[in-house]
Amino acid sequence: MPYGLAILFILFTVFIPAFYFWTSYVARKYFLKNMEVEKDYSLEPTVSVLMSAFNEGEHVYKTIKSMRESNYPADKLQIVTYDDYSSDDTWEWIQKAQKDFPNILCKRNAENQGKALTFIEMAQASSGEILLGVDSDCIFDPQAVKEMVVCFKDPKLGAVGGRFGILNVNENFLTQIQAIFYAVSFYFFRPIENYFRKVQCLGGPLVCIRREVYFKILPEIRTRNFLGVPLTNGEDRAITQMILAHGLLTYTNLESKCWTSAPTTWKGYLNQQLRWRRSALGQWVDAAWNARERVWRTSFGTVFGSLFLLNALFIWCLFAVFLIWQGGFFNFLIGFLAIHTIAAPIIGWIYNTAMRKHNPEQVLKNPNLAPLYMAIWFPINIFFITAVAMCTLDDGGWVTRQRKTTT
Amino acid sequence: MNETMNTALKEFYLTCYRYLGLGGLAALALLLVYYVATFLFFGASNTWVAPTLITSADEKAITSQLGMIQLNQQRDTIVIQKLTAESQLQSLRNQKSRAETLLARFNHASTFESKQATNLASQMGTLVGGKQDRDSQAETLNASLLAYEGQIKKQLDAGIITQEDANRQLTANKLFALNIDSSKLAAETIIAAKADLENHAATLNGKDMHLTTLESTARLQELETALETATISIVTTQETLKAETSLLVDVDASIQNLRNTPYIDVLNPTYNGKMPIAFVPYDNKNNVKIGDPIYSCFFQFFACWKVGSVVKIYPQEQIVDYPVFNLRFARQIRGFMVQVNFTRPSAISSQVLFVGGKPVLL
Asked: Is the complex ipTM more than 0.85?
């Protein structure tokens, strides 16, 4: 046990700062020339923003307004917004946006049919060369669209993602810790994936796909299922994986930014994480199942990328089972909490220092305490979320969106 | 047909997966409940003990046996050393006693002799004085006799006396003169003897005047030295004896302690080289008495039945790895062992047993 604690301590105090340096501006500029794609700022293809809204209320108007205030030419930026049969006044706000802003195509679904199907319909109704999928609860940086499309100089690049921060970052400790998780994801893991152009999941809030690529994989999207049960959640990861499986590249442009609302309650956060974990496990199962065929079709690296990071989940899960079996799980948690108590201010300081430089709006009010939430979240995450997700892979619904269809 | 088969197969797989998933979730929930319940139970329980079986081939049993042999050897050595020290002490005490007696006698004799010599010298002084007076008178008489020899010769020549009478008188004179010389010589001898006695007495009183007496005093010093040496040796031997006695007590205590461990008891032929015991943590100490029943349970602490009883308590501290989940950040636990008489020998394989009663009355 002391060795395990020592390893975790070293991880938190040495490797993470070292990793931060690795992905820092200096490292990218002077040592890793291939870290960023070659951008062509003369590129200005037509872009269709696809946004499925469900019970967003006034926020959908703010999202459309934010997108409309983008510095991308308005005539080349079509906004397609479908109301997925909301029970509130979302549709009224969409209609108001259509009146207030140009080049907006909107529709209300006759029944709630889920984000994935709505997205397909919006894509079919759109006309842009680039399809830009966004979430209806986001606010966008004016440069976001431009920064994404300039990456498409490379014809092998099938899709580009953006970086998202949290709108309600300081609402409570849970949102603050999510801000750290997002930062860890974008600053630590994405650069490595970017280096190989094999980003494993281009997040739903901000993702650009070439039109032809999307329609190439559309049959696969339509038939997504787990043992015959249609899947409608986790489509962002699924679409990214399909693009990779076709031998195309994926990339996240960290200069393209948007801000999304993070869950503010543990229940909401658990639901979101469970959905994401199912999606991640689905990716692993799919990649493992089709590994041989996919290696021949694409490359070993593509399959390895799909499998590698998720192996950590299984290792942690097995480690948790081992600890429970051996009787040291609580001791481990106490040790973990102790390490976090020491490491929390360090993590908070590193995070806030980085954010003050790059994203001042993401600076935490409680950097010393918020990381302590990681210690509470960790056992739930490593064992229960993964285990529950593993047992409920056939639950393909969007648990936070579905409601009974009224006739 | 293929489509139908595929659909049916998928449905079958899905059903299997759902059952597995349901089973997995149920197992997960049960595991969680079990884990938390076990944790809470053992956090509150003060009757659990951890059974184990020790054999004569156990490392600790062998070590204890070797330890016992070494301690017994050490004990024998100490006993011999103690007996030797006791004999030495007795011998030294005898030596000391003899030396003390002799020294006392020597001192007594010395005092007596000193007084006697002084008195004798004094008496001899008086005697010498009287004798010198008489010798002086004899000298005077002798001078008269020498004067009388002339008259004898004149009387002889005159024929007043016969030759025979003259010879007789002259011989008597010469004998008298010889007696005077002898007497003088005797007086000188007495004076020398007196001086010798005075010197002897003075040396006995601390002055250096009589060699023979000094030699006797030197022997006295030797005797005193021997006495001091014997006294010191007695003290040293007494300390040694004390240390040996203390060591013997310690060794006896160690032997007793070792005898009170299961690792020595297991060597008793009664147990055929195997003896069931149970570890009792100190927290549960007050709940364990000789004769208490022992219970074994299904599911850690549910569905229990009696499997034996406590027959002996080994009070020596034992430190073992925690045998059950614990709420403390500890890998090891302190406690002691008890010997258990199992009516159901299979209970030895249980992870924990309970003393005194069923832990949750089931």
From this structure: no
Note whether A307 and A289 are within 8 A (CB).
Answer: no
Write out the H or E segment, with its range, that includes residue A82: strand A77-83
pTM of the shown model: 0.64
Dihedral in degrees, nearest 10, Cα atoms B29, B34, B40, B43? -150
Q: What is the DSSP string of A10-63?
A: HIIIIIHHHHHHHTSHHIIIII-GGGSPPP-TT----EEEEEEESS-TTHHHHH
Report residue A72 as tokens.
């991308």
CB of B25 less than 8 A from some CB of A: yes
Using a CB-CB cut-off of 8 Å, the residues of chain A touching B14 are: 226-229, 394
Residue A227 has its nearest CB partner, among B17, B325, B327, at B17
Which phi and psi angles does A139 have, rounded to 5°? Answer: -120, 135
Question: Could you tell me whether strands A47-53 and A77-83 are parallel, antiparallel, or unpaired per DSSP bridges?
Answer: parallel
Chain B residues touching residue A393 (CB < 8 angstroms): 17, 21
Per-residue burial over B37-49, b if 16 or more Cβ lie within 10 Å, else e, is: ebbebbeebebbb
Amino acid at A124: Q
B window 302-341, beta carbon within 8 A of A = 322, 324-327, 329, 331
Beta strands A77-83; B302-321: pairing state: unpaired
Torsion of CA A281, A287, A289, A293, to 10 degrees: 170
Chain A closest CA to B276's CA: distance in Å? Answer: 25
Let me know: does A206 contact A164? Beta carbons within 8 Å. Answer: yes
B9 to chain A: nearest residue by CA?
A227
Cα separation, B67 vs B59, whole angstroms? 12
Report CB contact under 8 Å: B326, A335: no
SS3 of residue A349 by DSSP? helix
Rounded (5°) CA angle B174-B177-B183: 140
Q: Which pLDDT tens digits describe chain B residue by residue (362 residues)? A: 577 888 888 888 888 988 998 898 898 888 878 777 877 787 788 888 989 888 888 888 888 889 999 999 999 999 999 999 999 999 999 989 998 998 899 889 888 988 888 888 888 888 888 888 888 888 888 888 888 888 888 888 888 888 888 888 888 888 888 888 888 888 888 888 888 888 888 888 888 888 888 888 888 888 889 889 989 999 999 999 999 999 999 999 999 888 888 888 888 888 888 899 999 999 888 889 999 999 998 877 778 889 999 999 998 888 887 776 655 555 678 999 999 999 988 888 888 899 988 877 65
Contact A327 B13 (CB under 8 A): no
- Interfacial B residues in 268-287 facing A (CB < 8 Å): none
Q: Which residues contact B317 (CB under 8 A, 6 or more apart)?
A: B334, B335, B336
**B69 contacts B331 by C-beta, under 8 angstroms:** no
Burial class (CB in 10 A: 0-12, 13-18, 19+), A87: exposed
Q: What is the 3-state secondary structure (H, E, C) of chain B?
A: CHHHHHHHHHHHHHHHHHHHHHHHHHHHHHHHHHHHHHHHHHHHCCCEEEEEEEECCCHHHHHHHHHHHHHHHHHHHHHHHHHHHHHHHHHHHHHHHHHHHHHHHHHHHHHHHHHHHHHHHHHHHHHHHHHHHHHHHHHHHHHHHHHHHHHHHHHHHHCCCCHHHHHHHHHHHHHHHHHHHHHHHHHHHHHHHHHHHHHHHHHHCCCCCCHHHHHHHHHHHHHHHHHHHHHHHHHHHHHHHHHHHHHHHHHHHHHHHHHCCHHHHCCCHHHCCEEEEEEEEHHHHHHCCCCCEEEEEECCCEEEEEEEEEEEEEEEEEEEECCCCCCCCCCEEEEEEEEEEECCHHHHHCCCEEECCCCCCC
Distance (Å, whole) CA A35 – CA B203 = 118
